[in-house]
Amino acid sequence: MCTLEKRDNLYILTLTGTHDHRLNPSLIDSIQSALRQIRSSPASALITTAQGNYFSNGYDLDWARSAPSPDAVLSRYRLMSSKLRSLAADLISLPMPTIAAVNGHASAGGFLLALCHDYLFMRRERGFLYMSELDIGLVVPEWFDALLRCKVPPRVRREVVLRAAKLTAEMAVERGIAEKACDGAEGTLEAAVALGRELAKRKWDGHVYAKNRRSTMHDVLDSLVCDETVGEVKPNNAIVKPKL
Description:
Elements: E1 2-7, E2 10-15, H1 25-38, E3 45-50, E4 54-56, H2 61-65, H3 70-92, E5 98-102, E6 105-107, H4 109-115, E7 119-123, E8 129-130, H5 133-136, H6 142-151, H7 154-162, E9 166-167, H8 169-174, E10 180-182, H9 184-200, H10 206-216, H11 218-223, E11 232-233, E12 239-240
Parallel strand pairs: 2-3, 3-5, 4-6, 5-7, 6-8, 7-10
Antiparallel strand pairs: 1-2, 8-9, 11-12
C-alpha cells in the first residue's frame, strides 16, 4: 500500500500497489500508520509521492459500488469519506513541513490529498490536477470546498470546480497551486527533497509549526466533522441521508 523511507532528516512516503492508487480504506489505513511512525520525529520533513504515472485517482468508486446492496454501497462511501477526512486532519496536524511530489494524475480525492500538504511539486510531462466530480455526476463535499478555498485562488477554484479543468504542471504553477514544474518523476522527487532538506535545517519546533498550520487552516478543520454528500451519523447513530 505504501512504504516509508528515512533519508537523513527526511521521511519519504511512497504510495505503492495498484497503478492509480485509489483511496480505499486499506490504502488510507496504510498511510495513517506511516504518519503515526513519524509524528514524534524532531527536525524533519515529510515528502509524499507515488509509484507509476498516478499520484492518486481519488476514491475507489469501483470498490464502493461492488457492495451487494444500496445500503452497503452507501456504507462504503461513508467509510472512505470518514477515513479520508481523518487522514486530512492527520496531515494538517503533523508537526513538520509536508511536501507532495505529484508524479502523475491527482484527481478528486487525490487532488485533495496533495493539497493537504504545505508544498506541491508536479511532474512537467505527465499528470494533471483534476476535480472530476462534475464530469462523473457527483457533488463536491463542503470539506473539499473548504480545502480548495484555503489553497486555491477564487477564480482558479471556479475553473477547477465548475469547469472540471485539468491543470497541467505549468498551469498549476501559473495559477499559484504548485511550486514548480519538474522534469520526470525523479526530478519531481529531487525538487521536493531539496526543499525538504532546506526546511528541516531550520529545526523549528514541530508542535509550534503544527499549531501555526492549524491556525491558517481552521476553516478546513471545522469542515472535517462531516460529509453531507454521504450522510452524517448523529450521536444517537441515526443516519441522515445525503443531500444530493
